[in-house]
Amino acid sequence: MINIIAIITARGGSKGVLRKNVRDLNGKPLIAYTIEAAKKCKWINSVVVTTEDEEIKAVSRMYGAVIVDRPNELATDHALSRDVVIHALEVIEKKALPEYFVLMQPTSPLRTSDHLDEFISKFLTSGSASGISVVQCEHHPYKVLVDQEGIFQPIKGWNFMEQPRQVMPKAYRPNGAMYILSPKDFRMFERFYVEPVYLFPMETEVSIDIDSELDLLIAQQILKRANKY
């Protein structure tokens, strides 16, 4: 059996949605959806939540997660996920490092254990060094303008600005729901994207990332309609 752990990063000082990781979503704290999905996944042996927040710690323990006490300097607005995971692995290493870890953000409540099972299964047979979940871009990047010293230029060219999306290649972006790689590769490169990268496309609806009160309302309606929780 491959040893795989889930690492969930959850700090207390959210800005867009106050206390969002423990906000109620259809009768459960937001973070509970991610912990439960990880615990139900057939591949994941342990679920770790790294946080500095006492309420998040209590809620996470209640749903069966192991806590890594995150230093306050890694819980600021400017702290990088990379540094948070480096610290978490240092703590986990005192017992034993897993063969792989899955990084999961608690603000993706519609990612389920079924998604995790399929994602990990396909990654393990892909021959890839890392894997990420993605969603098709809502707006095609070829139609994006960038500021180059005060002059706005299209990324690809002005001719693409008028092309219908249907004739352009499909474009995807990370949705933040799931990443997987080995601690060894992560420490070597200090990033979550290590080539070759396996991409796991997810539907737009289940890729919602709770970053505003509107996102929370949308997720609530989706869950009610699905009647899955």
UniProtKB/TrEMBL annotation:
Matching SUPFAM superfamilies: Nucleotide-diphospho-sugar transferases (SSF53448)
Query: Which residues belong to the signal peptide in this entry?
Result: none
Catalytic EC class:
transferase
Q: Does the keyword Transferase apply?
A: yes
What Gene3D superfamilies does the database record attribute to this sequence? Spore Coat Polysaccharide Biosynthesis Protein SpsA, Chain A
Superkingdom of this entry's organism? Bacteria
Q: Which InterPro entries match?
A: CMP-NeuNAc_synthase (IPR050793), Cytidylyl_trans (IPR003329), Nucleotide-diphossugar_trans (IPR029044)
Pfam families noted in UniProt: CTP_transf_3
Alphabetically list the UniProt keywords.
Nucleotidyltransferase, Transferase
The catalytic activity of this protein is classed by the Enzyme Commission as 2.7.7.43
**What Gene Ontology molecular-function terms does this entry list?**
N-acylneuraminate cytidylyltransferase activity
PANTHER family (alphabetical):
HAD SUPERFAMILY MEMBERS CMAS AND KDSC (PTHR21485), N-ACYLNEURAMINATE CYTIDYLYLTRANSFERASE-RELATED (PTHR21485:SF6)
Q: Under what name is this protein listed?
A: N-acylneuraminate cytidylyltransferase
